[in-house]
């Protein structure tokens, strides 16, 4: 059991480090203007139009690193710093979010699956912790078992998210290189921005996976002691 606690702590430490890397890399390369001299909004619009997504708007949104693609309204929303910025960070993040819009257009398998299981996960992720904690406090294996089932859905969702995010980053890099938005010597900087962001999803998935394994071990240990 100690081993799983140790793994969870390691994964949590990686998560903290990943968040630090995202912020530090974003801030670092937000001060470096891209050679194409385009804003994040202009890059996003260009890539969308090139891929026939003229009907997908690009909108500014308040906050830092609040960038996202909304599949329900089919709109790319970029934080103001990314929307108006002409930096390596701005075009990297903007093109990544556009990658999600193109995934949506092409019905990319992992993205479609994530959308389908989201309603289940939004319910289970809120109930699972209560059942697991309640089961531990009350010594109820039934509650723990049910909590594990619901928590498994949330973990599965995070694992499905990984290929979605990595694919969007891969598309982003291909777009901005092929369209001449960046030069070859800027690819390394773009990679640092996008890879740091991807690492946060990996770390979050690891934390959840190790937590799930810990609860499974508790459940199995309780069954053996009955």
Automatic annotation (TrEMBL):
Record GO terms (molecular function): peptidase activity
Keyword vocabulary terms for this entry: Hydrolase, Membrane, Protease, Transmembrane, Transmembrane helix
Keyword Aminoacyl-tRNA synthetase: no
Membrane-spanning segments: 117-138, 143-164, 193-213
Top-level taxon: Bacteria
Pfam families named in the record: Zn_peptidase_2
Gene Ontology BP, a term: proteolysis
Protein name: Zn-dependent membrane protease YugP
Organism: Bacillus capparidis
